[in-house]
Amino acid sequence: MIVFAFLVLAARTVQVHLYPGDRVMARAESQYWQRVVASEGRGRIADRKGIPLAISVPTVSVFLDPQQWDVGNAKQLGDLFPSSVVKKAGQEYEGRFRWLVRKQPPSVRRELEKLNLPGIYTVKEKKRVYPQGSLLAHVLGFCDIDDIGLAGLERFWNRFLYSDPSVHIVAQTGSAKHVDVLSSLATPDCRGGNVVRVTIDARIQHILERCLDEAARNHDAQWAVALCMNPESGEVLGMVSWPTFDPNRRETMHPQRVLRNNAVGRIYEPGSALKPIVMGIALEQDYVEEGEVFHCPGRIRIADGWISEIYNQSHGKSTLEEIIVQSSNVGMAKIGLRFQAQDVYDALRLWGFDRETGIGVPGEEKGMLYKPGRWVGVIPANIAIGQGIAVTPLQLTTAISAIANGGHLLRPYLVDSVLDAEGEKLYVGRRTERARVLCADTAQWLQGAMRQVVALGTGQRADVEGLEIAGKTGTSQVALRGEYKEDRYVATFVGFWPQHHPEYVMLVSIGEPEGEAYTGGRVAAPVFRKMAELISRAGL
Questions:
Q1: Among residues 8, 386, 412, 462, which one has the fewest Cβ atoms lying within 10 Å of its Cβ?
Q2: To 10 degrees, what angle do helices 341-350 and 275-284 make?
Q3: pTM higher than 0.85 for the full model?
Q4: pLDDT at 481
Q5: CA proximity to 427, closest of 55, 160, 43, 148
């Protein structure tokens, strides 16, 4: 009898669940269930002092039930949404679900409730917002509508920032109202509590961005870049690419060239800014001795080409330091002719050229450097003066940092740490030495020579009283289809301060400035000086 009773109950259960009556079917059809996937928010990005750079804020997204929605009501949405959304609401759709507009201010929900229009509903979502606007835009990057990182740190560190979307079960009650219920079977992997803390100092970043924007506009430049690093640790304190955009506003991302991060994604010939590095290689490998003197006329012929001083000005007999201070092309070219191709090629790669720095942002280029088999004719001389080799601004800044810190080539890094919601460290950035490129004595000699560049030589417009700035100017012609153009240049100044115990290394490059001024000493050095002054005044 007990078994029979269980069989009867089981049979009835099957009948109720699989073969419901007309009354049950009618009630079920009066209700509507819809599975809605909504973004749950991302982890925060903050600067080294905790200033928020990227956050997720509450929003609402609006959807339609086409079977309940009366397209004639679309015109009543004109005060809430732009005409494109109103037009979309006025179209006929099939099915039971259609997104109308995503990630709107929470106030939209209240306004829709006042209208009380059947068939239009809202669900809570999170939206990515960049509180500082265009500040650090190329480094931070941006996300798509579903909060997946598409560029910059948002993309590279997506695994720590992205949260799985939540699944909402939207149910229609018998009174034709919708109830938003979070499914207990679809709990998202929420990382919204994670914090990616970058090495950037927002105050330094603001100074660099303001000064670079002003200079680029004044010189009607095609592009520009500025970098600031800590030479002892490899921390990037500021990284600016111009022109820029606001990741909060998609319309500012056109034309597409504004999205390029020039600091890591643009390669160019560094010109004379490379000379301290080449001189360091020559000293380390005994191609020259500190007491040597070179005769530097205004122009010399080498194989199938000519090497000229700027304005063809002769420098006469010049010591190694004077070659750097006067930025003598002829003197450096004569040193380049002594090079053994394979040895200097290997040395330049050891300094970080022709390979990525590994900084941890998408789009990094490795630069270009001729293989040793092609170092014939005038090419060794060209490389010695900073042409015939293409580098990124970050590679050049990192290499000059090795001079500033006594000869240690460090891996630059942008992320100081990643913390979870409880404050536990998931990742920690640290000083990483890639190579020892100079002995301490050679590094000290180069520091002194670069100080003289600013005190007496081509970099005098970068000097700031009391800061002991050391640096090097660079002016390089732009090549187009294999030929250098006489009226297209890149002006660079890269340096560090104070000379004896450097705390900052900074680079400024202005791409293709218009007007009579085009050299690194006249275009980039004054911008460097202004940035250094403002950083010093701010007590940073």
A1: 8
A2: 120
A3: yes
A4: 74
A5: 160
